[in-house]
Amino acid sequence: MKPLACIVLAAGESSRFKSAAPKPLHTIGGRTLLDRVLGTISELQPDRVTVVVGVAREQMEQTLSEYDVEIAVQEEQLGTGHAVDRTRSHYADFVGDILVTCADIPLVRAETLRSLIDEHQSRSAAATMLTTLEPDPTGYGRVIRDDSGLVARVVEHNDADEETRRINEINAGIFCFDAMALFEALTHLDNHNASGEYYLPDTLKYLRERGLPVAAWTADDPTEVMGINDRVQLATADRICRDRTRDRLMRAGVTMIDPAAAYVDDRVEVGGDTVIWPGACILGASTIGCGCQIGDHVLISNSHVGDGCLLRHCSSVTDSHLENDVQIGPFANIRGNSVIRARATIGQAEVNRSEVGPDTKAIHFSYLGDATVGAGVNIGAGAITCNYDGRRKNQTIIEDGAFIGSDTMLVAPVRIGRGAYTAAGSVITADVPAAALGVARAKQKIIERWAERVARDNDK
């Protein structure tokens, strides 16, 4: 098999987006268009990848520093042919095939690209283009075939006459070239067209005129090759991406009560027999185990949820880890890389930068911040850790089997020993030893006939 390289065109101006951010850095399905394209390409295992940047160059280069790619620069946006030609120095010694695609065609599957490359190599073609049949081809380049079915030329929409515009086979904007043929053809491009640009598809005409074969592979699904030129198309692509994800999960054994009302990013993995209720948002690289109940309007972001968990409605888990059989909510907020151990129950409470031990319960209106809580602890209603002293965050440690009375304030740094108790309404500022009771509240005082005195004073 011949060596393979990939060129990704990401240099254009995104004027129709009306955005300060370059188009390739907008997201669908929880990933940027650029990340999605580069991820698909990586499945082909190319020998090298070059991304052509231009508009918002510094921002694009900073983003690309996280990827194993080369960067070429198109200073002036003079068309797709001109953009590819900016990579010439990168491929001076390359002998093989080059796949050329665009950062704004994010939905194409690796399987489709493999089919394009296989067709190209099986025909020993100088170039092979990806096409599709588009019901409304307005704005796309039309593919003109010869009597043998090979590609004769591609006519851009602005340059097409009425008869040509009735053709619905369109250029999908993705090509596979023999490297030497590509760069030879690029030297002969001109910009004698309505836009005054150097079009990459015009290389096909040059190659055909020299008797070199130009083939085509047709993608069955037009949505795979849809380009994204404005935010309406971005939203359409996002919906398609999420439809794919929901279908994948349901076919793997996940129940979605109303699939269209579940917002799931495409890197999410969910185990069988889990039920997802409407309004749930599961984002980033989240994983959910088997047999869970994800309630309505639950948010899970970049987190792990173990098997058999129950997440009641309007709860949030962000950057955190829930072990098996954990129950949270309603209205729970778990965040800050917190860990909730097996069988723990967190009700209408918030946990931040904390670890909660197995079988521990914090059900009613509690806050645990910068805390390490042991196993089998009971956190009473309204109990909180006072972890911030105005300058720094401080740790609270609650050992196994402790009982924290309702409305206890644990002023960190503080430790509650194994099996210790705190009395309801206490403000605990010192460590409580194991099995001891900590009480820190004023003695109750009774003022007789208080209500009568207040009423008399109000009448004056």
How would you characterize the overall build of this protein?
The structure is a single chain. This protein has 9 helices and 39 strands. The radius of gyration is 31 Å and the shape is elongated. The protein starts with a strand and ends with a helix. A hairpin with a 5-residue loop joins strand 8 (142-145) and strand 9 (151-155). The chain is α/β, with parallel strands linked by helices. It folds into 2 domains: 4-225, Spore Coat Polysaccharide Biosynthesis Protein SpsA, Chain A (Alpha-Beta Complex), CATH 3.90.550; 247-438, UDP N-Acetylglucosamine Acyltransferase, domain 1 (3 Solenoid).
Q: What overall form do the CA principal axes indicate? A: elongated
CATH top-level class of the largest domain: Alpha Beta
**Averaged pLDDT, please?**
94
Gyration radius over CA: 31 Å
Count of domains: 2
- Uncertain stretches: none
CATH architecture of the largest domain: Alpha-Beta Complex
User: Would you count the extended β strands for me?
Assistant: 39
Helix content: 10-25%
Structural class: alpha/beta
